[in-house]
Amino acid sequence: MYAGNSLNQLDRIRQIRGIDACKNQFRIMEKKKSKSTIRILNDAGLHFATLFILRPEILEQNLFHDLNERNRIALRFCDKILPEKTLSDVPGIPLAINNEAFHASLLWILRTGAPDDGLSEAFDRILDASAAILIKKCCEKLVLPIAAELIFKRNQKGSYYHDLVWAFFSSRDVYALRLVAERLRSNNPKDAALACQLLNLPHDTPLETREDRQKQYARYLSWLNENQHYLCFTGESLMQTNCPSPCNVNLEAKYLCKQIPTRKKEPLSALSEPEQAVLKPFKDIGEAEKAVLANYSHHLHARNPANWNKWVRYPLEKQLEIAKLGRREFT
Q: In terms of C-beta distances under 8 Å and separation of at least 24 residues, what long-range contacts does 223-226 make, across chains too?
């Protein structure tokens, strides 16, 4: 999920001896005008955290233009996100979401930077901004596991994670729900409690045993598997409420057994005339009856599409009668 274990010299010094030692070693290398300085900075295995902490030294020694494109974009991105503006006059650095080099640099920032989350407030802000752009603007599904890991680790440490949660659910992807649901089975009570909160599940009763946690996970997964094609993401976040509801079941879509793309806000805007005719009386009944019909419709359609085609054209009263009786066969 995170970056690999191969470390170059500066990464190794930073991780083992600390930031100050890394900066001192960089200054020594630069005083000697060692050709290896730029080679190490431009190394494919360099971690973003090392580049980040060496920003002042790199700019002081006028090394910016010797960096590779990945590093130049990363430093320019830091300059754009953070208050201090040190590279405002540097032209020709692509920061457009449709630019492949920018996309690759953001992926590098997040993948290699995630293990050093908590390095500083500014550093975490860069990680969050990278995740937000990759998820919300680039629809980059591959970073969702990294974002999930960061959210739960920050929660364990008591660090701020609200912006990251907002970015995470901006994916409007069922995969995000599955990643959070996995934490329901965690042995860490903080993980299970946060998972319940993010999925809008009751969490007033502690999940004390492994069996309790597994049952909660199984119940949610069963619900998700049944409703995943009918979900509409709400956009609610922890910045708005302590109990956000990430998504709702669109009962109209479930009643019609019409799968909807989750990234759309108006999933049933293009219906055929027969679908509109079927849906019109459904819209006028109460939520409880809608749920009964939608659930029955979904299960009947999965079991017997021919019977479903017959049932859905019955008057609504007869549909409800059949649904409440749970009849599989009818005439």
A: 224/174, 224/177, 224/178, 224/181, 226/298
State pLDDT tens for residues 65-90: 999 999 999 999 999 999 887 775 56
- Please state, as a whole number, how many other Cβ atoms lie within 10 Å of the Cβ of residue 21: 13
Give the integer Cα–Cα distance in Å for 318 and 331: 11
Biggest alpha carbon distance in the chain?
Answer: 90
Per the CB < 8 A criterion, the answer to whether 265 and 232 are in contact is yes
Cα–Cα distance measured from residue 222 to residue 178, given in angstroms and rounded to the nearest whole number: 11
- CA distance linking residue 256 with residue 269, whole number of Å: 13
Strand pairing partners for 247?
233
Work out the number of other CB atoms within 10 angstroms of the CB of residue 293: 23
pLDDT band at 328 (very low <50, low <70, confident <90, very high): low
Residues 6+ apart with CB under 8 A from 39: none
| Secondary-structure percent of the chain, ordered helix, strand, coil, rounded to 5 | 65, 0, 35
CA-CA-CA-CA dihedral for 60, 63, 68, 70, to nearest 10:
0
Closest CA to 222 of 186, 184, 250: 184
Q: What percent of the chain has pLDDT over 70?
A: 92
Cα distance between residue 326 and residue 319, in whole Å? 10
* Rounded Cα–Cα distance for residues 235 and 128 (Å): 17
